[in-house]
Amino acid sequence: MARSNGKNFRLRVLMEPRHGACYDEILALALATEEAGFDAFFRSDHLFGVDPADRTYRPTDCWTTMGGLARETTRVRLGALVGAATFRTPGLLATIVASADEMSGGRVELGLGTGWYAREHAAFGIPFPDTRERFDRLEEQLAVITGLWRTPTGDETGFSFSGKHYTIEENHTPPRPAQSPHPPIIIGGSGPRRTPAIAARYASEFNGALGGDLRERFAVFARACEAIGRDPGEPRLSAVLPVACGRTRAQAQRRGAVMGSERIRESACIGTPGQVTERIAELRDAGADTVYFHIYDIHDLDHIALLGAEVLPQVTDPALVET
């Protein structure tokens, strides 16, 4: 039985299309993910691709597509890794996510971060504050979102919040997600101070982000949990792994070429199912109990099928995959 830190090990698919996607393409990948047996299907929350000069990129709104997938999938969990807190106000985001959660029958998870892509914000007219303010806004957003979700039905006082950036005045009709007390919250990143501190307070799952010393990031997060009296063994610990898997080395290399960025390829596992399995074992040894396969070619559904058939059974007990 595959376990890490006493938790059932999970493999998930994270979609970040190099050139964007339309809804039908996203749906096809989500359905392939579900059919292959993966635990969850996540997507990035971006309006630009990695290359801001790519004029072929087709943007879609993350949570609009999640609402559609909530009705057209049946088992996989759904979410964003991670959403940009700059894109939506907290009361609105709490309602959007709760709506998608109800539509899915309780399968939605909220990944949220500060936002980082300045050019993307400029291209769509979205304000992009400095780093300190973005962290301040993220912390206030999480306080508002969780506060709204946790406010009991019929509460006479309602929910109020007064912060530097957001104010909520006596909300007596807060959004109601299907999950209780609310959908899992994923927070992650490579920052050594504020990211782990905020995650320790609000996260159901801490994501160690891409590249770098994963073991050390998890250790910093554990210390942040201990500092506020939280058991560091409670939250999930996850990692992102760009992957290009092939039955042959040549096939894997062809899939790896689609990633497009040398920085991403440096962090990626490009190889056979056995090599991918070995890389996952390294991430588990570093403390991860959840791994997101970062997929860039969303049209290559055979890639998802291969990973599901040749890698998934090697690292998870099929009996632990919810059906």
Give an overview in words.
With 323 residues, the chain is α/β, with parallel strands linked by helices. The protein has one domain (3-243, 260-317): TIM Barrel (Alpha-Beta Barrel), CATH 3.20.20.30. It contains 11 helices and 14 strands. Residues 318-323 have low confidence and may be disordered.
CATH first level: Alpha Beta
Rg, alpha carbons: 19 Å
Mean pLDDT across all residues, rounded?
92
Shape summary: globular
Global structural class: alpha/beta
Query: Number of folding domains?
Result: 1
Neighbour order of strands in the largest sheet: 3-4-5-7-10-11-12-14
CATH topology: TIM Barrel
Q: Which strand-content bin applies to the residues?
A: 15-25%
What is the CATH superfamily classification? Luciferase-like domain
Distance between the termini: 17 Å
How can the largest sheet be summarized? 8 strands, parallel, barrel
**CATH architectural name:** Alpha-Beta Barrel
